[in-house]
Design a protein that fits this description.
alpha+beta; two-stranded antiparallel sheet; 34% strand; 150 residues; mutator protein; 9 strands; 8-oxo-GDP phosphatase activity; metal ion binding; single chain; 3 helices; DNA repair; binds 8-OXO-2'-deoxyguanosine-5'-triphosphate; 8-oxo-7,8-dihydroguanosine triphosphate pyrophosphatase activity
Length: 150
């Protein structure tokens, strides 16, 4: 296989969509975090997560990343959407999982920032791979209009 095609093999990424729910189960705010300094797209807002390590399931990778980055322990996670994104730096397969239960105090272990958001999102700028997620939320919630600032 040529180097170029090997480079474009998607890297699997586990992404957590932490959502608050009220007593009736209705979904409310969701968590965005900013990408830390030193990473590609530093300062852009995204959903927390990271790449799978060898032998991990998506849930295991998500639980590990949220512990490492945010200091929280998650309960169950629920497969929601998948998306392949082609960036100049990488081709990634994003596995978005919704999470409703977690324990612990949020700690910004990578000096990132966090924001509990609703539509339209105030955090700016958002990562290209985040925009489809906002559109899925809009569809689920019957929200119309821009989901974020350009
Ligand atoms: N965490 C996360 N990554 C996303 C989202 N949308 C999106 O396109 N990506 C892309 C950006 C990166 O190319 C890739 C995630 O890789 P990363 O560099 O953040 O993962 P990592 O924490 O494992 O990083 P590292 O150990 O390799 O530094 O997925 C998203 O909502 N959350």
């Amino acid at each position: 296989m040529s180097g170029a095609s090997t480079e474009r093999t998607p890297v699997d990424v586990a992404v957590g969509v932490l959502v608050e729910r009220d007593g009736t189960g209705r979904e409310g705010r969701f968590l965005l975090t900013s990408r830390p300094e030193g990473k590609v797209y530093a300062g852009y807002w995204e959903f927390p997560g990271g790449k799978l390590e060898a032998g991990e399931t998506v849930h295991e990778a998500l639980a590990r990343e949220l512990w490492e980055e945010l200091g929280i322990r998650i309960g169950e996670s629920f497969a929601w959407q998948e998306l392949v994104m082609d960036y100049p730096h990488a081709r990634v397969r994003l596995h978005f999982r919704k999470v409703y239960d977690w324990t612990g105090e949020f700690q910004m272990r990578e000096q990132q920032a966090m924001a509990w958001e609703s539509l339209p999102v105030a955090s700016h700028p958002v990562l290209p791979g985040t925009i489809p997620v906002l559109q899925w939320f809009a569809a689920e919630r019957g929200f119309t209009g821009p989901t974020h600032r350009d």
